[in-house]
Amino acid sequence: NDEVTGVIGVGQDITQIREITKEQERVADDLSRLIESANAPIFGVDLNGMVTEWNRKAAEISGFPKQETLGVNLVQSFIEPDYKKSVEEVLQDAIAGRETANFEFVLKSKFGRTFTVLLNATTRQI
């Protein structure tokens, strides 16, 4: 018999899930603003060394706005030649889970100036 006699619905209380999600979004927003407004250059790269983050201070000292850096290889495009190999090694170490603290390297600006930067590198995880 194929006669429809009604509907059965199953519900789930998602109030707590929504509250947790809202709090996670607030924390992520706070961290994003902290990175963007920090008084230190902050950059992020993906596993291929391509820039994924470039905060306001990095843009200020380098002369490269964020839009010009995203998707560009950090080492090849922004690091002085004498430091390329060592910076690449530091980034690979970070990817492998080995943190580096207080590593000095020279960042080149869009206008030919150079800046000595003290780098702390750590793994970025999802």
List the SSEs and their pairings.
Blueprint: H1 15-37, E1 43-45, E2 51-54, H2 56-62, H3 66-69, H4 74-78, H5 84-95, E3 100-108, E4 114-121
Antiparallel strand pairs: 1-2, 3-4
Report on the structure:
With about 130 residues, this protein is α+β, with helices and mostly antiparallel strands. The protein contains five helices and four strands, in the order αββααααββ. It has helices at about 15-35, 55-60, 65-70, 75-80, 85-95; strands at about 45, 50-55, 100-110, 115-120. The strands form two sheets. The chain has a two-stranded antiparallel ribbon with strand order 1-2. A hairpin with a 5-residue loop joins β1 and β2. The longest helix has 23 residues, at about 15-35. The protein is elongated. The relative contact order is 0.11. The model has no long low-confidence stretch (mean pLDDT about 90).
Q: How many beta-strand elements?
A: 4
Helicity range: 40-55%
Tally the helices: 5
The strand line-up of the biggest sheet is 1-2
List low-pLDDT spans: none
Order of helices and strands: HEEHHHHEE
The Cα radius of gyration reads 22 Å
Distance between the termini: 52 Å
If you average the pLDDT, what whole number results?
Answer: 92
Strand % is 15-25%
The main β sheet shows up as: 2 strands, antiparallel
Task: State the shape.
Answer: elongated
Structural class: alpha+beta
